[in-house]
Amino acid sequence: MLLIQDLQANKEDILARLAKRGVDFTELVNQAIELDNKRRYTQVELDSVLASSNKISKEIGQLFAQKKIQEANAKKAETGELKAKSNTLGEDLKSIESELYEVLFQIPNVPSEAVPAGKSEADNKIVLEHGEKPNLTQTLPHWELCEKYNLIDFELGVKITGAGFPVYRGKGARLQRALINWFLDKGRDAGFEEIQPPILVNEASGIGTGQLPDKEGQMYHMQVDNLYAIPTGEVPITNIYRQVILKEDQLPVKNCGHSPCFRREAGSYGKDVRGLNRLHQFDKVEIVQIAHPDKSYDLLEEMSSYVQRLLQELGLQYRVLLLCGGDTGFASAMTYDMEVWSAAQEMWLEVSSVSNFETFQANRLKLRYKNSEGKNVFAHTLNGSALALPRIMASIMENFQTPEGIVVPEVLRPYCRFDIID
To answer: Which residues in 208-243 are b (16+ Cβ under 10 Å) and which e?
Structure first.
């Protein structure tokens, strides 16, 4: 959530940067500022009434002490009127604040100055490409390879649950587990503390990281208990620090964690969602950082480089995109996407997003640190996929296929305990 004081002080600059998203937010921003002005006026009026009431209460005590009963009772009637007025103003203030928050919840994060303007993925900027396209003697898509080698059963998942809930089995399950363990070990070696988070979160957690109220239609909701299945490990891990005040020397805080992720993906259809390309349940290892505002963009570059090293060690060709304003997530100020080339499908598959949210999440979370002057300051939050499993699995199967079988990347062999899937 944007800071209302920033909207008040930097309205024109914020509107200009929000315009990079391809949407005009002028009406919402003006509405938020008007409500904040109304809130401030009501607060001043309430404070004045309360001050008058306190002053008269003291006078009443003095009058009773002086045996001036009639004058004291007259003053008591006056305090009754002030109390009624303060109660009305207090209710008005709560209503205005509630309306203000509802408006602020509808305004996305302000894109960084480095983010290009644009409305869709067609306007994203290619930052770099790494590696060469594999020269294959066969190019079976991963869903055919899964059937051939009995790695993942999509139809069985439909039987048990529904489309988008595959069943991993045999060497497919072992390859997935190998990737998870390798990603976690690499995170630990890079200084990230491993977290095993809950996979259900409450409404406050969803609001804290920006999934609610923006994406409730994409989340699985357990209405009886009002809990949500997590769409990403970012949600529970970042919420560890909700309403926490850190010490400045604790920054950056670095966490990583594996979790299943659940997304309804309503309206998804077509060839690009076949097989592992888009699922309702999938596994992911997430990295999260709580950062000093002066260092968060350096850390964003470090996190991008970290994910790229994972892809390099797996031997996968990839490219890095800087997302334009219209393709940047609601809560993000700047995002890099990493895409891996699928030789069989002849398309790029997104396998990671690394984002800096600046203070957007921290404001919702009330996540702060105490600076050298003893003031509580909002921290910056960052997160990234390191990595999402389905499309990495698909890329490994497709890009390393041979007539003899699927060759396992060397770094995974100690975890898999096999070199080839045949």
So the answer is: bbbbbebbeeebebeeeeebbbbbbbbbbbbbbbbe
pLDDT tens-digit map of 86-132: 999 999 999 999 999 999 999 999 999 999 999 999 999 999 999 99
Note the helical H segments in 228-295: 234-238
In one letter, which amino acid is 389? Answer: L
Q: pLDDT of 135-163, one tens digit each? A: 898 999 999 999 999 999 999 999 999 99
Tokens read off for 405: 């079988």
Amino acid at site 181: N
- Whether cis (ω within 30° of 0) applies to the bond prior to 387 is yes
Task: Determine contact, residues 362/244, Cβ cutoff 8 Å.
Answer: no
Q: How, if at all, do strands 334-342 and 318-322 pair? A: antiparallel
> Order of strands, edge to edge, in the sheet holding 281-291?
125-130, 318-322, 334-342, 347-358, 380-388, 281-291, 253-262, 193-195
CA atoms within 13 A on the CB side of 349: 33
